Amino acid sequence: MDIPPLLLQTGGSLIAILALFGLARALRLGGKPRLADENSVREAAGEVEDGFEATRTAISRDGTTALATNAEGKIMVIKLHGNRFAGRILTREARVREEIDALVVDAGDRRFGPVRLSIEKPGYWADAINRL
Amino acid sequence: MPDFSPTQYAVPLFVLAVLAEMVWSRLKNPEAYEPMDTLVSLGFGLGSTVAGALFGGFAAYVFIEAYDYRIFDFGPEWWAVWWAWPLCFVLDDLKYYWVHRAGHRIRWMWASHVNHHSSQHYNLSTALRQSWTGAFTFGLLFALPLVLLGFHPAMIAICAGFNLIYQFWIHTEAIRRMPRWFEAVMNTPSHHRVHHATNPRYLDRNYAGVFIVWDKLFGTFEPERDDEKIRYGIVRQLGSFNLLYAVFHEWIGMFGDIWRAPWRHKLSYLLREPGWTHDGSRDTSDTIRARWLARTGAVDQAPLTKPEPVASRNPIESPGQAA
Predict the structure, then answer these.
(1) Cβ of A14 and B240 within 8 Å?
(2) How many CB atoms lie within 10 A of CB B26?
């Protein structure tokens, strides 16, 4: 049976891709960074938006998500993405929902997804986001 | 006519090199790789070869038709003209510089090229994060002058293949600096790390493919600094490992902006720089850099080497007006 070269190449590449993905997992590459304190949130916030200087922060108990606000009243939500951090400045499109043990922030970016934050004083942050 | 695709032969080497860098990463810098990020990067690579096979025919057709109108003729055995090969390689690299620069400065082109920059990591798998949608831009027009000069499309394709292979190895943090003479002339891991950075100092710098001299010549060169940690990716990080979203997100955003924009601004959303809006509500690399300069008082290195700003000497589209 003749297999078209493109199909053969694609199949071989797919096997190699899955093998490399498996190897990356087996070697435990990546690690699991955490937002441990205010300074780490400030650093992450400055990476999301250059010049963003957080004046108040809230870190989720597991260290994977955080909220930060600056002197201009901007609010940023930060989440762990792989082993890097990504974030969004919240706008009027942002939605916030209070659950029993957490705050769920939707930045209005469907692919970025809702961010779950188990934080201290969730009411303060919910009000602040609702006021945007 | 030679039937040869250098990149096809290089694929096994790419796989072995990624494997070797993973072992290096395990020993020296485990954070350099992230399994899902690697999977997405390699998925991009596979998809781009399929897209190339499906849509590359149009560019080949245009080039072969244009070849009939060539100014110089290297004869029926054009592949035997030895000096045409290095000449074609250098001119193709010059072409690459400009198509790459357009890829960062024109949103239509960026919609495709953003794929290559969408990882927050910088390793050899990132090099394989190639676009699926290049055929839907006007990038092929940049190669037409080479065809019209008389270089056969196959010769250009082979040179472009070697150019792409060269660029593979520079996507790494494992090599800090090459010897000084090499750094002066060639594109290197250090120079290309700058290109993939989102630090304001580094935005839209170092467009070179093989020879970094083009950036020095056209005023877009920025050296890597040891005192500034590089952040990789795009200004608005995706925050998602969804491959299809990563491939098409900028196309979706661009068409959405064009749809919503007033008529007189629609074309600008296609042809102006990424981040441009008619109401100034978003940031471009220029506004980010200007704000950073104002905030830090830092000195922008690139204009120091030339008396005028880059954009005013080599405009791609007129600033301050709808393109």
Answers:
(1) no
(2) 17
CA dist B308 to B51, B220, B265, B317, Å?
40, 12, 28, 17
Taking the C-alpha atoms of residue A59 and residue A80, their distance in angstroms, rounded to an integer, is 12
Q: How far apart are the first and last CA of chain A?
A: 64
Amino acid at B289: R
Q: Do A113 and B239 touch (CB under 8 A)?
A: yes
Which residues of chain B are within 8 Å of residue A11 when distances are taken between CB atoms? none
- B-chain CB neighbours of A8 within 8 Å are none
Closest C-alpha among B103, B185, B101 to residue B138:
B103
| B22 lies within 8 A of chain A by CB | yes
Residue A80, beta-bridge partner list: A85
pLDDT, average across residues B28-42 = 96
* Total beta-carbon pairs less than 8 A apart between chain A and chain B: 113
3-state SS class at A75: strand
- The ipTM (two decimal places) reads 0.91
Whole-structure pTM value: 0.91
CB within 8 Å of B143: residues ≥ 6 apart: B59, B63, B92, B95, B99, B156, B160
Instruction: Give the residue on B whose Cα is nearest the Cα of A26.
Output: B35
Q: What is the pLDDT of residue B205?
A: 98
Q: Which residues of B touch A25 (CB under 8 A)?
A: 35
Residues B85-122: tens digit of each pLDDT: 999 999 999 999 999 999 999 999 999 999 999 999 99
B8 contacts on A by Cβ (under 8 Å) = 9
Contact B222, B194 (CB under 8 A): yes
